Amino acid sequence: MLAVALGFSAAQPASSQRAQTGRADPLPSWNDGAAKRGIIDFVTRVTREGGPDFVPVADRIATLDNDGTLWVERPLPAEVYFIFARVRELAARNPSLKERQPFKAALEGDAAYFHEAGKKAVLELFVATETGMDQERFAAEARRFLEKWRHPKLDRPFTEIAYRPMIELLAYLRRSGFQTWICSGGTIDFLRVFAPQIYGIPIDQIIGTELKLESRMEGDRLVVWRLPEIEAINDKEGKPVGIDRQIGKRPIFVAGNVGNYGDIAMMQYSKGRRGPSFQLLINHDDAAREFAYGEKDNASLSSAKKYGFTVANIKSDWKTVFGIGQAAAAK
Amino acid sequence: MLAVALGFSAAQPASSQRAQTGRADPLPSWNDGAAKRGIIDFVTRVTREGGPDFVPVADRIATLDNDGTLWVERPLPAEVYFIFARVRELAARNPSLKERQPFKAALEGDAAYFHEAGKKAVLELFVATETGMDQERFAAEARRFLEKWRHPKLDRPFTEIAYRPMIELLAYLRRSGFQTWICSGGTIDFLRVFAPQIYGIPIDQIIGTELKLESRMEGDRLVVWRLPEIEAINDKEGKPVGIDRQIGKRPIFVAGNVGNYGDIAMMQYSKGRRGPSFQLLINHDDAAREFAYGEKDNASLSSAKKYGFTVANIKSDWKTVFGIGQAAAAK
């Protein structure tokens, strides 16, 4: 209910939104700076009826990356910890896994192994832990994980690792008539379990990596079954493709982050729109309050410079990093 | 604008919807009979707050097939005529195509050839005519077709081959808080060009057959390019998979048609929902007003009997078949 109610709140008349957003600072957890001013200026311009940059509500599409943009992705993304938790359950039933890689590294929470071994190792675990069940069973497993496990470094539930400034941004965009979509490299089905509660984003506004699925009869009941194969990876050049498939319009607002080259193509796609657009790139430079990391060749920051994306540095642009609950998403 | 405004009208409070729908016959083009009574009874039950079958707005998902359910699919589906029109343009530039099958049959409008040669022949034409361009160019081509060409048997624009009773049903469902999605075997990109105008369905509520796509740079501009390969056929057992991917919930209301076995799995999927659901199967038995056709083994009608789907016979259940324009969808 919550999720759809929020999705539909985008249908508020623009005039009442402006009255609302004009009343107070829409982004109180952001320091005054180029990023905050850029966001507010853009939203004001595209929602000003009769103005030269006005964009009708139907085209106010925002797509935001999740891991590293809306919530923490270090030492490893939450979905990887979910996979680790599932491996523990498998190893309890089949102890020989304890001696086999990549299961051994998963059981030991060895993030370094996975940064070294790369996607192939994660994929092997993924197939072993997230497939071979129907969609309803998977959702129940993911829900159980989120209720039970805590982030290993931040020592808090995974439902509380979202960035407060970004939750405010989502609410501000929606109040301004935007549809807020997630466009993540994580799997769509994992995202669906927490996005409505944490971000106020309904499950049909999530674009993610997709598993191969098939219809299967279980007795007289048709279920959608998770096959052990990835169908489409929603990362890098895959993101514009995922957006085209599920939305069919170039986003006018995108947010992504430095760290894995994952959002450059999505930002270029948005920039290629005829008409106004805004690209926000989160830069993880704050080891004290979060995690500091980047790219060896600075590709994301370089393309920000080249194409005119706006960079938000966590250290200087965010007054507060965490500390907002479910209630805020409902605003 | 129209499309999204209509999509969002689903957010009306249930009470005002009931007042509205109680006022007049919500389905004036339907004869009084089991199908009409079944639909109205179902919608009334699931929208009655506090009633035993009440379904919250967030779960009021309706998925409707397009060809043969919302509009005419005979002698051939509209998208096939679009492909034929594109073949003519290709043949004008490359006359040798006139002697080569399946191009020859396409140029002669030889429906019998395609019913015989089957999907492989259509696929060959599809690749030759609908791929190798970016999405924006494709949309422009499809729009040009719909503005220019007329249905060969009904002698009217393709924008006027929708069934009036189904347009009324879509509007009735939306007034009752349902999200109305198309779930079609046609390609998502072709559907997107006309669904907002004809059905009041926004382009992000369309599930269809998907082409393989890729991100590609054209100079400094990133475009989504149509590759010569089908990625996912959204027909038969593919439909529950498509619905899971884009909506993530079992539909409580589905509509499909007899003729190509295309909607049985989608209906079983809906029927497998825990809680109330309704499945409507359109039976094409009216050669005088439309086209009469069925399946040799009566598979769709048999499964209607077995699972309890509701059959609507065009001859007896529809007072009027055609004759409604864009204006009606806006109601």
Which secondary structure elements does this structure contain, and how are they paired or packed?
The structure is a homodimer of 331-residue chains.
Chain A: H1 2-8, H2 14-23, H3 34-47, E1 61-64, H4 78-93, H5 103-107, H6 111-117, H7 119-130, H8 135-148, H9 164-175, E2 179-187, H10 188-199, E3 206-218, E4 221-232, H11 238-246, E5 253-257, H12 264-271, E6 278-283, H13 299-307, E7 310-313, H14 314-317, H15 326-329
Parallel strand pairs in A: 1-2, 1-5, 2-3, 5-6, 6-7
Antiparallel strand pairs in A: 3-4
Helix pairs in contact in A: 4-7, 8-10
Total strands of chain A: the figure is: 7
- Order of helical and strand elements of chain A: HHHEHHHHHHEHEEHEHEHEHH
How would you characterize the largest beta sheet of chain A? Answer: 7 strands, mixed
**How much beta of chain A, percentage-wise?**
15-25%
Shape of chain A: globular
Structural class of chain A, please?
Answer: alpha/beta
Strand order, largest beta sheet of chain A: 4-3-2-1-5-6-7
Note poorly predicted spans of chain A.
1-21, 325-331
- Give the mean pLDDT of chain A: 91
Question: Could you walk me through the main structural features you see in this protein, from its secondary elements to its overall organization?
Answer:
Chain A has 331 residues and is α/β, with parallel strands linked by helices. Chain A has 15 helices and 7 strands. Chain A has helices at 2-8, 14-23, 34-47, 78-93, 103-107, 111-117, 119-130, 135-148, 164-175, 188-199, 238-246, 264-271, 299-307, 314-317, 326-329; strands at 61-64, 179-187, 206-218, 221-232, 253-257, 278-283, 310-313. Chain A has a 7-stranded mixed β-sheet, with helices on both faces. In chain A, helix 4 (78-93) packs across helix 7 and helix 8 (135-148) crosses helix 10. Residues 1-21 and 325-331 of chain A have low confidence and may be disordered. At the A-B interface, helix 1, helix 10, strand 3, strand 4 and helix 11 of A face helix 1, helix 10, strand 3, strand 4 and helix 11 of B.
